[in-house]
Amino acid sequence: MLTFLAFIFFIIPYSSGEEWIIHVYTGTESFSGTDSNIFLRLFNSKYGYTNEYKLTHENVLIGKNIFPLKNLFEYGEHNRFRIFTDELGSIEKILVRRDDFLSIQSDWLLDRIVIENNHDRIKFTFKCDCWLRKERPYITIPVLSDLHSIDKNKSSKNNQTILIVLIVSIAAIICISFSFRECYRHNQNRHFSSVQTSFESSIIDRYHLQRPEQSTLQILNETDSSSKHNRHPLQSDDERRVTVAQSVAITSTDEPPAYQDLFPN
Question: Which top-level group of life is the source organism from (predicted)?
């Protein structure tokens, strides 16, 4: 039950608001420090203003090697505090005041206050360099718009530089990959051409080397077949005469056949 109540009253309000780190710088003139209590209020034109926060040991951020009960807002010191507010976004001005806790050493020389968003680390600087005395124990300080715009311009320039570097890197990677692909394609074409040329030359050389053997074999085969075709069995003289007579009768002309044709032997 206690955990549920703590969740409702503490965790939910802080999760819906913003966390700020307050950097307070005290001046360096004589008797610049104060023992008075310091109060701070933040203003925003859109969301109005916050409650007044007391900067004390309850919300101070103690660094290393610093005694917890050390006096705050002493000569030349830098004190840090943590506060939680509703959503503000940006801070346009602040109201700083002190009380008369002690009449002695109550005046305070405030140099500047820097308010930092603990989420996105955006800083708002409020330059004072003035005394908070008894006759004027409070002061309203506007934000240094020039400094804020300078930081904003620096961040925008850094973003532009990062974007340009990213674009150039992507373009370089694309060009390099395209060049590698073209070189690979060119080498593949050269290799294919060389393989094709060597294959054609080997075919031609093999053809020229095998052509004489094939010609000789063909001539021998043709000679053998022609000899077989023209070869006749042994014939007698009478059969030879009949054959010659038949051939002469087939190829007869007007002139009588010669004696050699009738009797070749």
Answer: Eukaryota
Bridge partners (DSSP) of residue 17 are none
* 127 close to 112: Cβ distance less than 8 angstroms: yes
Beta strand pairing call for 93-98 and 48-49? unpaired
Q: Look up residue 193 and give its two tokens.
A: 């051409």
Q: Which tokens sit at 229?
A: 């075709």
- Residue with the two structure tokens 């060389």: 194
Phi, psi (deg, nearest 5) at residue 96: -115, 135
Q: Where are the beta strands (DSSP E) in the chain?
A: 18-26, 38-44, 48-49, 53-55, 78-85, 93-98, 108-117, 123-132, 138-142
Q: With contact defined as beta carbons under 8 Å apart, do 123 and 116 qualify?
A: yes
Please, how many CA atoms are within 13 Å of residue 177, restricted to the half-sphere of its CB? 6
Q: Is 181 exposed, middle or buried (0-12, 13-18, 19+ CB in 10 A)?
A: exposed
- Helix or strand holding residue 176 (H, E): helix 145-230
CA distance 116 to 200: 80
Model-level pTM greater than 0.85? no
Integer Cα distance of 190 and 196 in angstroms: 10
| Alpha carbon of residue 142 to chain centroid | 42
